[in-house]
Fold this protein.
Amino acid sequence: MNIHMKEIIATCILFTWVVFLVSVLTRRLYDFMRRKGTKHNVAVYYNRKVIHILAGGLCAIVVPFTFNTPLLPLIMAWILSVITYIPHRTGNIMYWFQTKENMYEVSFCIMWGLIIALGWILSGGDFWFGVIPILFMSIGDAITGIVRNKLYKRRTKSWWGNLAMAIFSIPVGATLGIAGMIAGAIASIVEHFEIGPIDDNVMIPLTSFIIILLAKYYAPWTLSM
């Protein structure tokens, strides 16, 4: 894989942005929400969704327009997974967006890099094959979380949140055609259910990616790639 200088520069910019967002901006946002009387768990949950959108979602959108291969995005994502895992390992979590109860942000980083890389490889070089499922996870799941948090002020499942996610995910999935729309709809349903230790950040992109992958091989007419 040939790596161009623009890809290296873009990776540095995106990595710096994510670190700044996670370590500075969301910490200040947490302090602001707490001063306004927002409960700790609610503020943490909002921050997690802000990171979903402004880190995972924004970076995913940039990838197809900037990178020629998924190598650097994959490396960046997995470095970030290590960075977010270390606080859990040391017991010194970043309290403004992390919780001791789970390490979902770690699986988020791992799946972000993995699905984008696999999508590019298995589609023969089309980033959107992996980016669309990542947008379901990054922005779609964030939308359902924000709706739930606004309605119930706690982490819980709600079909209202899933409806909001579907309103976003189905049109975005249309970028890939009928199969993408189906993947967006199913991802919005899958989010509602918790399957043991497997969290949403694994199930949403994995399920939707498999649907798109199956469509490529068994129903290519449903894809607009």
